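Let us practice reading a record.
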Amino acid sequence: MATPKKHIEPTADLIRRYLAGELDDKTMHALERQALEDPFLADALEGYGQYPGPRSPR
């Protein structure tokens, strides 16, 4: 029996880190797979990429 895949809790910070290329490959691909099944997440990734808003101070 296959184990169910765990979904990632998409947060604004996770999306920002994804778009900045700061995630490890495993997390990045898991988020991309999840976006293929979740149109709302896919729209969030696309929209945030177009309008990222103000940058957080480091």
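A brief commentary: Residues 25-37 form the longest helix (13 residues).
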